[in-house]
Amino acid sequence: MNVSIKNHASSPTERPSHSPYPQFFPSGHLLPFVLVTALFFIWGMSNNLTDILVQQFKKSFELSPLQAQLVQTAVFFGYFFTALPAALGMRRWGYKAGILAGLCLFGTGTLMFWPAAIVGQYWLMLVALFVVGCGSATLETAANPFIAQFGPAETSERRLNFSQAFNPPGTIAGVLIGTYFIFSGIELAPTRVVEMKAAGTYAGYLHSELMRVVPTYVTLGCVVFLFAACIGVTRFPDALRPQDEENREGLVSQLVSLLRVPTLRAAIFAQFCYCGAQVSTWSAFIPYVKQSTHASERVAALFLTGNLIAFALGRIVSTGLMRWIRPASMMGVYAIVNVALLCVGILHPGTIGAGAILCTSFFMSIMFPTIFALGVKGLGERTKLGGSLIVMSVVGAGIIPPLVGLIAKHFRSYALGYTVVIGCYLVVGAYAFLSREDAEAAVGRISRSSY
Fold first, then answer.
1. pLDDT exceeds cutoff 50 at 277
2. Alpha carbon 214 to chain centroid distance?
3. What's the chain's average pLDDT?
4. Which among 213, 239, 236, 253 is positioned nearest to 109, based on CA atoms?
5. What is the three-class DSSP state of 260?
6. How many CA atoms does the CB half-sphere of 371 hold within 13 Å?
7. Where do the domains of the chain lie?
8. Disulfide: which of 64, 136, 183, 237 matches 29 by Cβ 3.0-4.6 Å?
9. How far is 440 from 194, CA to CA, in rounded Å?
10. Which residues, 6+ apart, have CB-to-CB distance to 316 below 8 Å?
């Protein structure tokens, strides 16, 4: 049932088709689709640069595992506080305005790394990361529902997974850039640290390590503002602009009515757990490899790159399989497989355990877009508002990683920290199997309701 874009049957994104298969790419206005899809690469690169920052700041500021994971907290609390205001802004000014606002926030946050590094205060770095998170949240609040709505509802999961497939190459690029441009490759032995402190050179070394983040983030900021200029001169389709009927009902009553939709509520909680699982897996992976295999920072970062390659392959392969396998069923099976792989990583820390954790990235690859698409399916004109609630649940990526760090600090074992991630995948698996029958029924109920 095509209910994602109501009352716009004549739009270029919903031209009738005589093909037995629902249309996948939107007809006409392909340039906006391509540009918005490119955003998935940009924020993917930024999000996985933070995995490098966890280790770099741990060294530069001499942080505990819990304190280092506040990098993720700063970024994803930006998601939590910005997603709903971003959705409200887009209801009035449209997706394009939201995307431009997100790019400007994102670029501003990256440029803030320069003065923060010069001052040399960790809390200023966290503020810059919070602003980057606000920009990313605005972009995701705009881009995910834009792609989901930009065509028939029957192919929304496949279309969103296609666009999300450009996210993993960005994450790979981010880790590789961080590995070779942020990590110096210098890791001091404890005896050398004592010598440098005695000579008064250790503080200078730490500051030089901190300043290594500046060129990467300033360059990224310049690229983001250039991309904003390209978006600004591109015409977006009128059919996806906000309609007057969206503003007839009060915000509170709309939120209450949305939260009464069981599939949306379940998607919010499942996304909270999934995002916490994904970010915890990657942000703790470099310390896990260093602790269990005694590898260097750069070698551990290359192991992390393997996670991202597996993630990209999982997205590509799984998106193709969705033509024959229901996305919710696939996601449920993938969640069970990841629980088993994490058990291997916990019980056998070392090369075997690192390989098992690496493989979880293949199976987590479809979870975010599938949960999102199932959650907003059938919401019609309220897709932006419902989507913002799901994006707000990304705050799980700011809450769960510190729990992993807390367990790692208490037990002196990053392997045991992954027990938290197992709990997250159990929730995702339960959501997937319960939503298989509920999703289509919910679409029918919502499409018959009056907005």
1. yes
2. 23
3. 83
4. 213
5. coil
6. 31
7. 28-242+249-448
8. 237
9. 64
10. 165
pLDDT in tens, 194-235: 999 999 999 999 999 999 999 999 999 999 999 899 888 888
Sequence-ordered list of residues with C-beta below 8 angstroms from that of 379, at least 6 positions apart, any chain = 4, 258, 261, 264, 385, 386, 387, 446
Secondary structure of residue 81 in the 3-state scheme: helix
Give the C-alpha distances (Å, rounded to integers) separating 54 from 127, 261, 287.
Answer: 15, 37, 9
For residues 357 and 345, the answer to whether their CB atoms sit within 8 Å is yes
User: Would you state the torsion angle of the CA atoms of residues 316, 318, 323, 324, taken in this order, to the nearest 10 degrees?
Assistant: 150
Residue 309, classified by CB atoms within 10 Å of its CB into exposed (0-12), middle (13-18) or buried (19+), is middle
pLDDT grade for 171, boundaries at 50, 70 and 90: confident
Cα angle at 150 between 371 and 168, to 5 degrees?
50
Report the share of the chain in percent with pLDDT over 90. 41
For the chain, helix (H) and strand (E) counts, in that order, are 22, 0
Alpha helices by DSSP H, listed for 322-451, are 327-347, 351-364, 367-376, 383-392, 396-411, 414-417, 419-448
Q: Which two tokens stand for residue 351?
A: 């090369």
Kindly indicate the confidence band of residue 16, based on its pLDDT and cuts at 50, 70 and 90. very low
- The maximal CA–CA distance of the chain, rounded, in angstroms, is 78
- Whole-number Cα distances in Å, 6 to 170, 370, 381: 33, 22, 7
d(CA 185, CA 171): 21
Assess contact for 52 and 301: CB atoms under 8 A.
Answer: yes
Q: Which CATH superfamily is domain 28-242+249-448 in?
A: MFS general substrate transporter like domains (1.20.1250.20)
Closest Cα partner for 349 from 412, 399, 301? 412
Query: Alpha-carbon distance 159 to 166, whole Å?
Result: 12
DSSP state, residue 284: T
Which residues are within 8 A (CB) of 121 and not within 5 positions of it... i.e. 6 or more apart? none
Closest by alpha carbon to 210, among 151, 290, 150, 124? 124
Q: Residue 172 is which amino acid?
A: I
